[in-house]
Amino acid sequence: MKVMINDEIKKTCVIYIIISVVFTTIAFMESPGYGKLTLLLCIIFIIIYILNMKIRYKQISNLTDDLNKILHGDDKIEIDAYSEGELSILKSEIHKMTIRMRDQQQKLLEDKVYLADSIADISHQIRTPLTSINLLVAILSDPNITQDRKIRSINEIYSLLSKIDWLVTSLLKMSKIDAKTVIFNKEKILMVDFINKAIEPLTVPIEIREQQLIVEASGNFYGDISWTQEAVINIVKNCMEHTPKGGTITILASENALFTEIIISDNGPGIKEEDLPHIFERFYKGENSSDKSFGIGLSLSRMIIMSQNGIIKAENITPCGAKFIIRFYKGAV
Length: 333
What we know:
Strand order of the largest sheet: 2-4-5-7-6
Shape: elongated
Oligomer: single chain
Distance between the termini: 64 Å
Radius of gyration: 37 Å
Mean pLDDT: 81
Helix content: 55-70%
């Protein structure tokens, strides 16, 4: 009998037998009838105990088999497989643990796929400017190159290296936000000062494009100034690149009791309807995107904004142009 393999059960049976012998002996000393009755009851009690242990032992064995199947990913525990009691509670907890483990396993698989895709995208994004740099270096190695061509090639190399540096820096920032290692500070600044400081690096490129930048700001901004300014500048830069020469970019910023709102719009061609649901996705490049675009600026902006209890959405405006609406809520939404 397999149940008797268990040392604890064997010891318990021995104790019960000794107790039975003692009480049966005492009962026989009082009366043979009492002795027989006591012996019968002790035997019945021991048999019931052994049968009960056998049933429990079988349930434990079945539970062990189920766990083995789970470890090998072959099966799952049926919810009604065990009766009420301690084993049922144990089975329920194991079942919950199994569900969590499978969810984690699925998440890990998804993360691996996402990581593989991201690495492939990053490799592609970096390979393109590196290929151009290699071609430019080959041109520079030509002994017959003119001075004018040499200067242009060097400037192009500097420009490509700057783009690679920006790409790597942006990806590192995104990875930090993904890993939740970034601590966003809560600071207060006048909205007009916040906007002016954010767009300062773009004032010269906007002037070169002969574009007009209109800023109307009121109230205060509450949040991480440096990170949020980076989010704003990426959006303004996107509008600048998609607005024609002589076009207009407008920034309207205000504050109310519920939220701080920043609306950035342009009078360019707008966003293709099929691109609207995807423009904040990492490495996504719409139909109107330039060859110089990496497709991560808007994605980084969205991560920064959402990490500060904010939202961002994009839409087209009539008769032409695109509009980005940013809101930072002052309470839970």
